[in-house]
User: Which sequence fits this backbone?
């Protein structure tokens, strides 16, 4: 109920603007819309800033048109022998979606995955067969329990193989 005043009437209502919810805004005259009888205003002068010293970024080294692949060092403390097969020959078989034909990559088969442990994916391994050797990155999974590694066609070609090849895989 209302508190009684000397007149016996309730107090008049008031609109109070609480300062924590109201903040006055100052709009520059140039931004205020023109009235119907006003001439267009000239833009306010732009201050001339004083140039400050800047540090130029170092130029990025330019990449060679066809950079040579960097050699990858392989830890050879462990190795496994077995059979290698191939996949991903352009126009002949399926390739991994992220690696084009000609890539130096391979799929790790069950014996290799078991020997390397759970962090096999992304590792570089040296594959040696028939007196030749290549370094490939393990990027795919091969379900075979009979083979050790499934190479892309390019590493298999460099090893001199055309089908199944006896190899040693070192990491």
Assistant:
């Amino acid at each position: 109920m209302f508190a009684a005043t000397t007149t016996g009437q309730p107090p008049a209502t008031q609109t109070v603007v609480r300062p924590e919810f109201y903040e006055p805004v100052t709009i520059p005259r140039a931004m205020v819309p023109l009235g119907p009888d006003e001439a267009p205003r000239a833009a306010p002068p732009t201050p001339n800033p004083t140039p400050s010293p800047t540090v130029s970024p170092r130029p990025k080294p330019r990449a060679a048109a066809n950079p040579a692949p960097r050699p990858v060092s392989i830890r050879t403390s462990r190795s496994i022998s077995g059979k290698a097969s191939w996949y991903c020959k352009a126009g002949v078989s399926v390739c991994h979606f992220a690696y084009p034909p000609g890539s130096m990559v391979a799929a790790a088969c069950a014996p290799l995955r078991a020997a390397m442990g759970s962090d096999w994916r992304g590792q570089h391994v040296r594959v040696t067969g028939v007196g030749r050797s290549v370094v490939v990155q393990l990027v795919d999974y091969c379900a075979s329990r009979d083979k050790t590694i499934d190479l892309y066609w390019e590493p298999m070609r460099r090893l001199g193989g055309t089908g199944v090849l006896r190899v040693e895989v070192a990491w």
In short: The domain at 79-170 is CATH 2.40.40.10 (Barwin-like endoglucanases). Residues 110-116 form the longest helix (7 residues). The CA atoms of residues 15 and 123 lie 73 Å apart.
